[in-house]
Amino acid sequence: MNLLEILREPCPWYVAGPLIGLTVPILLIIGNKSFGISSSLRHICAMCIPANISFFKYDWKKESWNLFFVFGIFLGGVIAAYFLANPNPVEINAKLSEQLATYGITDHSGLLPKELFSWESLFTLRGFIMIVVGGFLVGFGTRYAGGCTSGHAIMGISNLQWPSLVATICFMIGGFIMANLILPYILAL
Amino acid sequence: MNNLENKNTDTEGINGSQLKDSGFSNLKYLIVGIFFGIVFVKAEIISWFRIQEMFQLQSFFMYGVIGSAVVVGIISVQIIKKFNIKTIQGEKIEIQPKVFSKGQIYGGLLFGFGWAITGACPGPLFAQIGTGVTVIVVTLVSAIAGTWFYGLIKDKLPH
Protein backbone atom coordinates (compact mmCIF):
# COMPACT_ATOMS: atom_id res chain seq x y z
CA MET A 1 0.00 0.00 0.00
CA ASN A 2 1.45 3.38 -0.87
CA LEU A 3 1.09 6.46 1.30
CA LEU A 4 -1.83 7.91 -0.63
CA GLU A 5 -3.75 4.66 -0.29
CA ILE A 6 -3.13 4.66 3.46
CA LEU A 7 -4.36 8.27 3.65
CA ARG A 8 -7.51 7.32 1.76
CA GLU A 9 -8.43 4.67 4.33
CA PRO A 10 -10.64 5.84 7.21
CA CYS A 11 -8.52 6.96 10.13
CA PRO A 12 -8.84 4.76 13.27
CA TRP A 13 -9.90 6.30 16.60
CA TYR A 14 -6.51 5.78 18.25
CA VAL A 15 -4.92 7.98 15.57
CA ALA A 16 -7.68 10.59 15.26
CA GLY A 17 -8.25 11.07 19.01
CA PRO A 18 -4.63 11.82 19.94
CA LEU A 19 -4.27 14.14 16.91
CA ILE A 20 -7.32 16.09 18.08
CA GLY A 21 -5.94 16.14 21.63
CA LEU A 22 -2.66 17.58 20.34
CA THR A 23 -4.55 20.60 19.02
CA VAL A 24 -4.76 21.76 22.66
CA PRO A 25 -1.00 22.22 23.24
CA ILE A 26 -0.36 23.30 19.63
CA LEU A 27 -2.79 26.24 19.88
CA LEU A 28 -1.42 27.19 23.30
CA ILE A 29 2.18 27.09 22.17
CA ILE A 30 1.81 28.83 18.82
CA GLY A 31 -0.09 31.78 20.25
CA ASN A 32 -1.64 31.28 23.72
CA LYS A 33 -5.01 30.30 22.27
CA SER A 34 -7.44 28.07 24.16
CA PHE A 35 -9.02 25.49 21.89
CA GLY A 36 -12.71 26.15 21.24
CA ILE A 37 -14.84 26.24 18.13
CA SER A 38 -18.38 27.35 18.96
CA SER A 39 -16.95 30.74 19.95
CA SER A 40 -16.47 31.33 16.21
CA LEU A 41 -20.27 31.57 15.89
CA ARG A 42 -20.28 34.36 18.48
CA HIS A 43 -17.51 36.21 16.64
CA ILE A 44 -19.52 35.96 13.41
CA CYS A 45 -22.49 37.54 15.25
CA ALA A 46 -20.23 40.27 16.66
CA MET A 47 -18.77 40.90 13.22
CA CYS A 48 -21.99 40.87 11.16
CA ILE A 49 -25.02 41.60 13.35
CA PRO A 50 -24.02 42.97 16.78
CA ALA A 51 -27.37 44.87 16.92
CA ASN A 52 -26.22 46.76 20.00
CA ILE A 53 -26.47 43.59 22.12
CA SER A 54 -23.88 43.80 24.89
CA PHE A 55 -22.93 40.13 24.46
CA PHE A 56 -21.66 40.96 20.97
CA LYS A 57 -19.94 44.24 21.75
CA TYR A 58 -16.30 43.32 22.10
CA ASP A 59 -13.19 43.46 20.00
CA TRP A 60 -13.87 40.44 17.78
CA LYS A 61 -10.82 41.30 15.68
CA LYS A 62 -8.67 40.21 18.59
CA GLU A 63 -10.33 36.81 18.34
CA SER A 64 -10.07 36.60 14.55
CA TRP A 65 -7.60 33.71 14.92
CA ASN A 66 -10.69 31.63 15.72
CA LEU A 67 -12.23 32.53 12.36
CA PHE A 68 -9.01 31.61 10.53
CA PHE A 69 -9.08 28.30 12.40
CA VAL A 70 -12.65 27.41 11.38
CA PHE A 71 -12.02 28.52 7.80
CA GLY A 72 -9.10 26.07 7.91
CA ILE A 73 -11.47 23.32 9.08
CA PHE A 74 -13.65 24.08 6.05
CA LEU A 75 -10.63 23.89 3.72
CA GLY A 76 -9.54 20.66 5.42
CA GLY A 77 -12.96 19.26 4.58
CA VAL A 78 -12.50 20.28 0.94
CA ILE A 79 -9.04 18.68 0.74
CA ALA A 80 -10.11 15.46 2.45
CA ALA A 81 -13.18 15.09 0.25
CA TYR A 82 -11.51 15.82 -3.07
CA PHE A 83 -8.01 14.36 -2.65
CA LEU A 84 -8.19 11.81 0.16
CA ALA A 85 -11.73 10.50 -0.17
CA ASN A 86 -12.47 6.97 0.91
CA PRO A 87 -13.98 5.31 -2.18
CA ASN A 88 -16.10 2.90 -0.11
CA PRO A 89 -19.44 3.67 1.54
CA VAL A 90 -19.45 4.49 5.25
CA GLU A 91 -19.48 1.30 7.27
CA ILE A 92 -22.24 1.49 9.79
CA ASN A 93 -23.55 -0.72 12.53
CA ALA A 94 -25.97 -3.34 11.11
CA LYS A 95 -28.60 -2.59 13.74
CA LEU A 96 -28.52 1.14 13.00
CA SER A 97 -28.74 0.42 9.28
CA GLU A 98 -31.83 -1.71 9.90
CA GLN A 99 -33.46 0.96 12.10
CA LEU A 100 -32.78 3.71 9.57
CA ALA A 101 -34.17 1.62 6.73
CA THR A 102 -37.56 1.62 8.48
CA TYR A 103 -37.54 5.43 8.06
CA GLY A 104 -36.54 5.19 4.42
CA ILE A 105 -32.91 6.12 5.07
CA THR A 106 -30.83 3.69 3.04
CA ASP A 107 -28.19 5.83 1.31
CA HIS A 108 -24.86 5.28 3.08
CA SER A 109 -22.69 6.57 0.26
CA GLY A 110 -21.85 9.82 2.04
CA LEU A 111 -20.99 10.81 5.59
CA LEU A 112 -24.49 12.25 5.96
CA PRO A 113 -27.66 10.52 4.75
CA LYS A 114 -28.95 12.33 1.65
CA GLU A 115 -32.55 11.54 2.60
CA LEU A 116 -32.18 13.92 5.54
CA PHE A 117 -29.51 16.44 4.58
CA SER A 118 -30.16 17.78 1.11
CA TRP A 119 -31.79 20.86 -0.42
CA GLU A 120 -34.86 18.79 -1.38
CA SER A 121 -35.18 17.56 2.20
CA LEU A 122 -34.94 21.09 3.60
CA PHE A 123 -38.45 21.84 2.32
CA THR A 124 -40.03 18.88 4.12
CA LEU A 125 -41.04 19.02 7.78
CA ARG A 126 -38.55 16.29 8.70
CA GLY A 127 -35.70 17.95 6.85
CA PHE A 128 -36.53 21.38 8.29
CA ILE A 129 -36.35 20.01 11.85
CA MET A 130 -33.09 18.17 11.15
CA ILE A 131 -31.36 21.05 9.37
CA VAL A 132 -32.81 24.26 10.78
CA VAL A 133 -34.09 23.39 14.27
CA GLY A 134 -31.09 21.13 14.92
CA GLY A 135 -28.68 23.87 13.90
CA PHE A 136 -30.45 26.44 16.07
CA LEU A 137 -30.18 24.14 19.12
CA VAL A 138 -26.46 23.65 18.45
CA GLY A 139 -25.83 27.41 18.29
CA PHE A 140 -28.09 28.35 21.21
CA GLY A 141 -27.07 25.42 23.43
CA THR A 142 -23.32 25.74 22.99
CA ARG A 143 -23.33 29.45 23.78
CA TYR A 144 -25.64 28.99 26.78
CA ALA A 145 -23.31 26.24 28.00
CA GLY A 146 -20.29 28.45 27.29
CA GLY A 147 -18.67 25.95 24.97
CA CYS A 148 -19.02 22.85 22.85
CA THR A 149 -17.27 19.52 22.55
CA SER A 150 -13.96 21.24 21.85
CA GLY A 151 -14.18 24.05 24.40
CA HIS A 152 -15.58 22.00 27.29
CA ALA A 153 -15.12 18.27 26.65
CA ILE A 154 -11.59 18.56 25.28
CA MET A 155 -10.06 21.91 26.36
CA GLY A 156 -11.91 22.28 29.67
CA ILE A 157 -11.39 18.73 30.86
CA SER A 158 -7.76 18.83 29.70
CA ASN A 159 -7.34 21.71 32.13
CA LEU A 160 -9.19 19.67 34.82
CA GLN A 161 -12.11 22.11 35.07
CA TRP A 162 -15.06 20.44 36.77
CA PRO A 163 -17.68 22.78 35.21
CA SER A 164 -16.56 21.44 31.84
CA LEU A 165 -17.13 17.89 33.05
CA VAL A 166 -20.65 18.88 34.12
CA ALA A 167 -21.26 20.43 30.68
CA THR A 168 -19.91 17.34 28.90
CA ILE A 169 -22.14 15.01 30.92
CA CYS A 170 -25.12 17.21 30.02
CA PHE A 171 -24.17 17.13 26.31
CA MET A 172 -24.19 13.34 26.50
CA ILE A 173 -27.47 13.13 28.45
CA GLY A 174 -29.13 15.47 25.93
CA GLY A 175 -27.78 13.38 23.06
CA PHE A 176 -28.97 10.10 24.57
CA ILE A 177 -32.46 11.50 25.19
CA MET A 178 -32.75 12.91 21.68
CA ALA A 179 -31.28 9.96 19.78
CA ASN A 180 -33.23 7.29 21.64
CA LEU A 181 -36.49 8.89 22.74
CA ILE A 182 -37.29 11.83 20.44
CA LEU A 183 -35.46 11.38 17.14
CA PRO A 184 -37.41 8.22 16.20
CA TYR A 185 -40.58 10.38 16.06
CA ILE A 186 -38.87 13.05 13.97
CA LEU A 187 -37.47 10.45 11.54
CA ALA A 188 -40.94 8.92 11.20
CA LEU A 189 -42.40 12.25 9.95
CA MET B 1 -6.86 44.78 26.40
CA ASN B 2 -8.82 41.64 26.78
CA ASN B 3 -12.45 42.43 26.56
CA LEU B 4 -14.59 39.44 25.76
CA GLU B 5 -17.51 40.24 27.96
CA ASN B 6 -18.55 37.65 30.55
CA LYS B 7 -15.05 36.38 30.41
CA ASN B 8 -15.65 34.35 33.52
CA THR B 9 -18.70 32.51 32.38
CA ASP B 10 -17.74 32.16 28.76
CA THR B 11 -14.07 31.68 28.11
CA GLU B 12 -14.29 29.32 25.20
CA GLY B 13 -11.77 29.66 22.44
CA ILE B 14 -10.20 32.62 24.16
CA ASN B 15 -7.14 34.50 23.06
CA GLY B 16 -4.90 34.54 26.12
CA SER B 17 -2.21 36.48 24.31
CA GLN B 18 -1.59 40.17 24.91
CA LEU B 19 0.24 40.46 21.61
CA LYS B 20 -1.50 41.68 18.51
CA ASP B 21 -1.90 39.10 15.77
CA SER B 22 -1.28 40.33 12.28
CA GLY B 23 -3.21 38.84 9.38
CA PHE B 24 -0.07 36.99 8.46
CA SER B 25 0.47 35.41 11.87
CA ASN B 26 -3.15 34.26 11.80
CA LEU B 27 -2.22 31.99 8.89
CA LYS B 28 -0.79 29.46 11.31
CA TYR B 29 -4.26 28.93 12.77
CA LEU B 30 -5.55 28.40 9.26
CA ILE B 31 -2.98 25.65 8.77
CA VAL B 32 -3.79 23.97 12.11
CA GLY B 33 -7.46 24.20 11.12
CA ILE B 34 -6.78 22.49 7.78
CA PHE B 35 -5.08 19.52 9.46
CA PHE B 36 -7.86 19.39 11.98
CA GLY B 37 -10.52 19.41 9.25
CA ILE B 38 -8.77 16.58 7.41
CA VAL B 39 -8.71 14.47 10.59
CA PHE B 40 -12.40 15.23 11.14
CA VAL B 41 -13.29 13.90 7.71
CA LYS B 42 -10.85 10.99 7.58
CA ALA B 43 -11.93 9.70 11.00
CA GLU B 44 -15.57 10.16 9.92
CA ILE B 45 -16.22 12.14 13.09
CA ILE B 46 -18.34 14.47 10.98
CA SER B 47 -20.57 11.57 9.97
CA TRP B 48 -24.16 11.67 11.18
CA PHE B 49 -24.07 7.87 11.31
CA ARG B 50 -21.13 7.85 13.76
CA ILE B 51 -22.95 10.21 16.12
CA GLN B 52 -26.09 8.03 16.05
CA GLU B 53 -23.96 4.97 16.81
CA MET B 54 -22.41 6.81 19.73
CA PHE B 55 -25.73 7.84 21.27
CA GLN B 56 -27.23 4.41 20.73
CA LEU B 57 -24.16 2.69 22.21
CA GLN B 58 -23.65 0.75 19.00
CA SER B 59 -20.00 1.63 18.53
CA PHE B 60 -17.00 2.41 20.69
CA PHE B 61 -15.47 4.60 17.99
CA MET B 62 -16.49 8.11 19.14
CA TYR B 63 -15.80 7.26 22.78
CA GLY B 64 -12.32 6.18 21.71
CA VAL B 65 -11.78 9.43 19.78
CA ILE B 66 -13.01 11.78 22.51
CA GLY B 67 -11.46 9.72 25.33
CA SER B 68 -8.00 9.54 23.76
CA ALA B 69 -8.16 13.23 22.78
CA VAL B 70 -8.90 14.15 26.41
CA VAL B 71 -6.07 11.94 27.72
CA VAL B 72 -3.57 13.56 25.33
CA GLY B 73 -4.98 17.01 26.23
CA ILE B 74 -4.66 16.43 30.00
CA ILE B 75 -1.09 15.16 29.69
CA SER B 76 -0.13 18.08 27.43
CA VAL B 77 -1.58 20.74 29.72
CA GLN B 78 0.09 19.16 32.76
CA ILE B 79 3.44 19.15 30.95
CA ILE B 80 2.98 22.80 29.91
CA LYS B 81 2.20 23.78 33.51
CA LYS B 82 4.90 21.68 35.16
CA PHE B 83 7.70 22.82 32.90
CA ASN B 84 6.30 26.33 32.56
CA ILE B 85 6.49 26.07 28.78
CA LYS B 86 6.18 29.41 27.00
CA THR B 87 4.60 30.25 23.66
CA ILE B 88 6.84 30.55 20.63
CA GLN B 89 6.60 34.32 21.13
CA GLY B 90 7.96 33.85 24.67
CA GLU B 91 4.73 34.66 26.51
CA LYS B 92 3.55 32.80 29.59
CA ILE B 93 0.74 30.39 28.66
CA GLU B 94 -2.56 31.51 30.20
CA ILE B 95 -5.61 29.29 30.40
CA GLN B 96 -8.75 30.89 31.78
CA PRO B 97 -10.58 28.75 34.35
CA LYS B 98 -14.16 27.73 33.56
CA VAL B 99 -16.66 29.07 36.07
CA PHE B 100 -19.75 27.02 36.83
CA SER B 101 -23.13 28.34 35.78
CA LYS B 102 -26.49 26.63 35.38
CA GLY B 103 -26.09 27.33 31.69
CA GLN B 104 -23.74 24.40 31.49
CA ILE B 105 -26.67 22.19 32.49
CA TYR B 106 -29.53 23.77 30.51
CA GLY B 107 -27.41 24.81 27.55
CA GLY B 108 -25.55 21.52 27.68
CA LEU B 109 -28.78 19.54 27.38
CA LEU B 110 -30.02 21.73 24.51
CA PHE B 111 -26.73 21.36 22.66
CA GLY B 112 -26.93 17.59 23.26
CA PHE B 113 -30.35 17.57 21.54
CA GLY B 114 -28.95 19.52 18.61
CA TRP B 115 -25.85 17.30 18.41
CA ALA B 116 -27.95 14.15 18.12
CA ILE B 117 -30.23 15.73 15.49
CA THR B 118 -27.64 17.29 13.21
CA GLY B 119 -24.89 14.78 13.99
CA ALA B 120 -22.52 17.70 14.33
CA CYS B 121 -20.98 20.02 16.84
CA PRO B 122 -19.89 23.43 15.53
CA GLY B 123 -16.49 22.24 14.25
CA PRO B 124 -17.81 19.42 12.08
CA LEU B 125 -20.37 21.79 10.51
CA PHE B 126 -17.54 23.67 8.78
CA ALA B 127 -15.93 20.42 7.64
CA GLN B 128 -19.24 19.00 6.38
CA ILE B 129 -19.74 22.07 4.20
CA GLY B 130 -16.19 21.59 2.93
CA THR B 131 -16.93 18.04 1.85
CA GLY B 132 -19.62 19.43 -0.44
CA VAL B 133 -22.85 18.95 1.55
CA THR B 134 -23.88 22.51 0.74
CA VAL B 135 -27.23 22.39 2.56
CA ILE B 136 -25.28 22.41 5.85
CA VAL B 137 -24.71 26.12 5.17
CA VAL B 138 -28.34 26.43 6.31
CA THR B 139 -27.54 24.52 9.52
CA LEU B 140 -24.57 26.82 10.11
CA VAL B 141 -26.63 29.97 9.53
CA SER B 142 -29.25 28.58 11.89
CA ALA B 143 -26.56 27.87 14.52
CA ILE B 144 -25.34 31.47 14.15
CA ALA B 145 -28.96 32.60 14.60
CA GLY B 146 -29.19 30.41 17.73
CA THR B 147 -26.05 32.03 19.14
CA TRP B 148 -27.42 35.47 18.31
CA PHE B 149 -30.75 34.66 19.98
CA TYR B 150 -28.88 33.54 23.08
CA GLY B 151 -27.10 36.91 23.16
CA LEU B 152 -30.46 38.66 22.82
CA ILE B 153 -32.24 36.89 25.69
CA LYS B 154 -29.20 36.02 27.80
CA ASP B 155 -30.13 38.24 30.76
CA LYS B 156 -33.56 36.64 31.07
CA LEU B 157 -32.16 33.09 31.27
CA PRO B 158 -31.15 31.32 34.50
CA HIS B 159 -27.37 31.13 34.89
Automatic annotation (TrEMBL), chain A:
UniProt keyword terms in alphabetical order: Cell inner membrane, Cell membrane, Membrane, Transmembrane, Transmembrane helix, Transport
GO cellular component, one term: plasma membrane
Bilayer topology annotation: Multi-pass membrane protein
Alphabetized InterPro entries for the sequence: Sulf_transp_TsuA/YedE
Cell membrane is among the record's keywords: yes
Location in the cell: Cell inner membrane
Domain of life: Bacteria
Membrane-crossing residue ranges in chain numbering: 12-30, 65-85, 123-145, 165-187
Primary site of residence: membrane
PANTHER family linked: INNER MEMBRANE PROTEIN YEDE, SULPHUR TRANSPORT DOMAIN-CONTAINING PROTEIN
Similarity-based family: Belongs to the TsuA/YedE (TC 9.B.102) family.
Name by which UniProt lists this protein: YeeE/YedE family protein
Automatic annotation (TrEMBL), chain B:
Protein known as: Transporter
Transmembrane residue ranges: 29-49, 61-80, 105-127, 133-153
Organism: Flavobacterium pectinovorum
Swiss-Prot/TrEMBL keywords: Membrane, Transmembrane, Transmembrane helix
Pfam families assigned: Sulf_transp
InterPro entries: Sulf_transp_TsuA/YedE
Coiled-coil annotated residue ranges, if any: none
